[in-house]
Amino acid sequence: MEIQNERDSGGNLRITDIEGDMGQKTRLNLLLQPDGDVVMSIYEIDEMGLKIPRPSIEFCTMSRNPIIAKGLQQIILKLAEENKKSR
Predict the structure, then answer these.
(1) What is the pLDDT of residues 4-58, one digit of tens each?
(2) Can you list the alpha helix ranges (DSSP code H) found in 1-87?
(3) Which of 45, 35, 32 is nearest to 78 (CA)?
(4) How far apart are CA 77 and CA 3, in angstroms?
(5) What global pTM score does this model have?
(6) Which of 36, 33, 38, 29 minimizes the C-alpha distance to 58?
(7) Which of 7, 18, 46, 83 has the fewest other C-beta atoms within 10 Å?
């Protein structure tokens, strides 16, 4: 897993290459945008090591599922905080 501890020039906070618990070749990326919206995307690693993107989904803070966006925000911020402590 790769965690950005600081926001990039666009104000985004990224957590990439999150590996699942079953050793699969599927990875999860999380993007926290400056407005609080969260984008989740998945990709698979093929036999050659290439990343094959899959559809992504966005959860907005002021939309149908604000509780999901808030929960994902908390996860992202907690992962970034824990990563800072471990350095």
Answers:
(1) 767 888 999 999 888 888 768 899 999 999 999 999 999 999 999 899 999 999 9
(2) 66-85
(3) 32
(4) 10
(5) 0.82
(6) 38
(7) 46
